Amino acid sequence: MSSLRFFTKHSSTSLFSSFLLKHIRSMSNIPENTVYSGPTSQTPNQRTTLAQLRQKYKNLKPISMITAYDYPSAVHIDMAGIDICLVGDSASMVVHGHDTTLPITVDEMLVHCRAVARGAKNPMLVGDLPFGSYESSSDQAVDTAVRILKEGGMDAIKLEGGSPSRIVAAKAIVEAGIAVMGHVGLTPQAISVLGGFRPQGRNILSAVKVVETALALQEAGSFSIVLECVPAPVAAAATAALQIPTIGIGAGPFCSGQVLVYHDLLGMLQHPHHAKVTPKFCKQYARIGDVINKALLEYKEDVMNGSFPDAHYSPYKISEADVEGFSNELQKLGFDKAASAASEAVQKLNATK
């Protein structure tokens, strides 16, 4: 920019200087009218903020949250006006095909985060810290959280569990200036300890632990808590005990908001394997998977019987006169078969119009 300042300062034509500035701005990724004249991944006037979420919570207005893992799903969530978009480590299962959330890496999560950040301009964006990326130390937790925001374009992070080390990690991340969403109840990253995907809070000790863990995460500075797969009365008790919003998933209707996995609520994965693991708590608002399967089968049939593509879906034209000239040139080159194919193609397309 130093050469630009020199040029505009010493140019004798202010009109040309103004034109040059506008031209360079149009070529740059630096937006106009920003405080530090640097690129920004969000529009402050549009993005849902913590203050807005707190106001909804204070006014007892339910908070909506959905997972997203790529640009198209993020755009749909954005258009629907969802409050929070979670880039969940559930991508490990619904996108990458693993049986658990454990295999997904930070680098893989960052790819999903960046894609979602490009598509969802209005919701608050929360990125999951994947298994193995924050458990070792507070320094590791903060470093990973920083990457999720700086490299992934997220507004906040989510971490699972309420063990003492994870409470310490949550506090350290908050103290580093990063908003944290907690997650208690069924925590998929802890299936090794839990013995599988098992609901929590189904007896007195377990129910009390759910509430105590949520309170500990609140004390650590979390702005919200996800309650997953706990009985509705336990979720109601936790919600009443806390002074921050709870987001339920399989936790009944008494939470401050609700979250579902994008693919689950849309019925995207209508195949036998997924049918066996579709959560009981998930309402399917569509059966998009059936629509996709039907469309793909119809496409295959059209290709096999030659009905696609027809003349309507062959939009790039060449005049019959040019085809004739093209065929003549091919014949001169000794490509008689190719010349005949070009001529026959014209006749066939005309016949299907």
UniProtKB/TrEMBL annotation:
Keywords of this entry: Pantothenate biosynthesis, Transferase
Name of the protein in its database record: 3-methyl-2-oxobutanoate hydroxymethyltransferase
Catalytic activity: (6R)-5,10-methylene-5,6,7,8-tetrahydrofolate + 3-methyl-2-oxobutanoate + H2O = 2-dehydropantoate + (6S)-5,6,7,8-tetrahydrofolate
Record function comment: Catalyzes the reversible reaction in which hydroxymethyl group from 5,10-methylenetetrahydrofolate is transferred onto alpha-ketoisovalerate to form ketopantoate.
CDD domains from the UniProt entry: KPHMT-like
NCBIfam families in the record: panB (TIGR00222), PRK00311.1 (NF001452)
Pathway(s) where this gene product acts: Cofactor biosynthesis; (R)-pantothenate biosynthesis; (R)-pantoate from 3-methyl-2-oxobutanoate: step 1/2
One GO BP annotation of this record: pantothenate biosynthetic process
InterPro entries in the cross-refs: Pantoate_hydroxy_MeTrfase, Pyrv/PenolPyrv_kinase-like_dom, Pyrv_kinase-like_dom_sf
Family the UniProt entry places it in: Belongs to the PanB family.
EC number: 2.1.2.11
GO CC field: mitochondrion
Statement: the UniProt record of this protein carries the keyword Lipid metabolism: no
GO MF annotation terms: 3-methyl-2-oxobutanoate hydroxymethyltransferase activity; magnesium ion binding
Pfam families found in the cross-reference section: Pantoate_transf (PF02548)
